[in-house]
Amino acid sequence: MKREVLKLAILIVLAVVLLILAFTLGNIFRSNEPPISDGLSDNQLPDTSATPITIGAGFSIETFAKDLAGARVMARDGFGNFWVSQPSEGRVSLVTVEEGKVTRVDPVFRGLNRPHGLAIDPQNAFLLYIAETDKISRVPINRDGPMEKIADLPAGGGHFTRTIAFGPDDRLYVSIGSSCNVCNEDDPRRAAIYSMERDGSDFRPVATGLRNAVFFDWSYIDGRMWATEMGRDNLGDDLPPDEINIVEEGKNYGWPICYGKNIHDTNFDKNTYIRNPCEEPFEMPSYINIEAHSAPLGLVFVPEEGWPEEYWYDLFVAYHGSWNRSVPTGYKIARIPLDDKGRKTGPIEDFISGWLTADGRVLGRPVDILLEPGGMMYISDDHSGVIYKVTVDRLD
Length: 396
Hints:
Elements: H1 2-32, E1 54-55, E2 59-65, E3 74-76, E4 82-86, E5 91-98, E6 101-109, E7 117-121, E8 124-132, E9 135-140, E10 148-152, E11 162-166, E12 172-176, E13 192-196, E14 204-208, E15 216-218, E16 225-229, E17 242-247, E18 251-252, E19 258-259, E20 263-264, E21 288-290, E22 296-301, E23 315-319, E24 332-336, E25 349-353, E26 366-372, E27 376-381, E28 386-392
Parallel strand pairs: 14-18
Antiparallel strand pairs: 1-25, 2-28, 3-4, 4-5, 5-6, 7-8, 8-9, 9-10, 11-12, 12-13, 13-14, 15-16, 16-17, 17-21, 19-20, 22-23, 23-24, 24-25, 26-27, 27-28
């Protein structure tokens, strides 16, 4: 009897030891694993049970990828996968897509200095360009290889984001925000857009006086460059307007002494002038004004293929949302109706909304937009750490 009791006691002790060991090893291995997502089986938007996201008629929206804390810029490579910058995490992650579904999310590049801009070389679909706050580098993604720095960028102060994209002229463009809310910059590279050859050479200014033109794109109709622009703070709820500008080489867009439709910022600039300092050709006015503090970020033109005809040539803009306004604004995707000449044909309207609830809760903050001819749209959200997918349900 005593022997059986002893055996039972030994078995119980061994079981307890094995359970503790399994739990400990499980935690060890789990802590060393990169975040991996197998997609969302229910395709539900985060926290939308109380206030559902609303979208234009004839479209559907679902969560495409998750586990992407602070997701900002997206770029699609030659494999059909997505690269996503996460400046708050100091990394760039690979979102692997198989048969239209996300199968993995892997933080491939870590320990970076607030990486933001991403671009795939149009001459090499497997060469990724990454813009950190102080430099631009490139790295092959179809084989092992070192990250090669091609350009240094000014860092410090405010507006750390650096966004990059290849233009129709095959040059690489970079937007560099101001170091402050409103000031006279010592470094001419701040509050400007520059361009360079793909190896970083021939680094030269494109346009200046752009306080924080975080995102830009080119019209597929006429090749003109458009950029979103955030106005300065501390002038109240309704001033100055945020802007969309058509960026022309060699032009100055007014900051820090002018804003909107060439309005003189006398709150900052106390100088007396013989001529009005805010007028063409000296300073360029905004092309479209947006409600102050909406924080416009990603913008993209709607193509014809796979999209309803009433949307052709229109501009989608991501309003990231206000942080310094008594009545919050933004937190949505806006649609700006345009004709084939880029002329505004009607009022700005909401295309996707609901990320800001009626009681002031924030469910999401859209950042970047990728649009594909087949009627697909992808939107990054740095608040919820996800990517949404929008599809066209029907074509009239």
